[in-house]
Specification:
The longest helix has about 35 residues. Helices cover about 50% and strands about 5% of the residues. A four-stranded parallel sheet has the order 2-1-3-4, sandwiched between helices. It has a single domain, classed as Creatininase (Rossmann fold). By secondary structure, it is of the alpha/beta class. The chain binds zinc ion (ZN). The site of zinc ion (ZN) has 6 residues, from helix 2.
């Protein structure tokens, strides 16, 4: 094992035990999906992104390991496309809860949940108090909660530099995800098949985006976008993808540091 290895599934139990004893007491659990990502991206896209984000966050934090990315996720709204595999909500919640219970038994002080698939996020937020309560005597549970209405300023700036609108960036397999995949796994991206999907600005307007997402859950993505893209993949660039990933990692790390220090203060206050 390389000294800077953080992926638990590449480590032996002894290496994991030593890492935790040596201070790597935070574990990052990315919750992803197996679902269609347009004609040009693989169905594992959210899983690859989950690994990249979690690894980036763990390296940046310096005291963290990365749990095997959880998938399938909640992808019922993509089931009209071949290759999509989903859990139902009750199963998903059970798997996530038991996953955290397993991790809590190993000596981690903090479990940090991140979602690399928008369809998981609301259910994870709703489940968080229950998991936190179940584990309260063993460790703290945190979640980096995505804001669907508003992107961080740094990400908006990258879109501006590349002349990309909110609709082109998209929420699924558009400029943003395609660029990130070009940065991580260019061998899995077929830019000859990259297309425009649903890319009307109104659909992505901050006042409308949550409703658009609920519409996806109700009617399925195929009714909104026959090729499965919500955004426009055609002008994706690997350099932009690397910057988008770095910005997301930086933002998550800042949030995690804040959450963990707040939780530690609370602990001191109650002990
Ligand atoms: Zn995705």
């Amino acid at each position: 094992m390389a000294n800077d290895e953080v992926l638990m599934e590449r480590m032996s139990w002894r290496e994991i035990e030593e890492a935790i004893a040596g201070g790597k007491t935070t574990v990052i659990l990315a919750v992803a999906s197996i679902e269609q990502h347009g004609p040009h991206l693989p169905t594992g896209t959210d899983t690859y992104l989950g690994y990249a984000l979690a690894e980036g966050i763990a390296h940046e934090l310096g005291n963290a390991l990365v749990a095997p990315v959880m998938r399938p996720g909640l992808s019922e709204h993509h089931l009209d496309f071949p290759g999509t595999v989903t859990l139902t909500q009750g199963t998903f919640m059970k798997v996530l809860e038991e996953y955290c219970i397993s991790l809590a038994g190993h000596g981690f002080k903090d479990i940090v949940l991140i979602s690399s698939h928008g369809g998981n996020s609301d259910t994870m937020v709703a489940l968080l108090p229950r998991i936190a309560k179940a584990l309260k005597d063993r460790c703290q549970v945190h979640m980096v909660i995505p804001n669907i209405r508003e992107q961080p300023a740094e990400i908006e700036e990258i879109y501006r530099e590349y002349g990309i609108s909110r609709a082109q960036a998209g929420v699924h397999s558009g400029f943003a995800e395609t660029s990130m995949m070009l940065a991580l796994h260019p061998e899995l991206v077929d830019m000859d098949k990259a297309e425009e999907g649903r890319a009307d600005e109104a659909f992505y307007h901050p006042d409308r985006i949550k409703y658009s997402q609920i519409e996806s859950f109700v009617y399925g993505v195929r009714s909104q976008s026959p090729n499965g893209i919500l955004g426009d993949a055609r002008s994706a660039r690997p350099e932009a993808g690397r910057r988008l990933l770095d910005a997301r990692i930086k933002q998550a790390v800042e949030e995690i540091r804040k959450m963990i220090s707040v939780a530690q203060e609370e602990m001191k206050g109650t002990s």
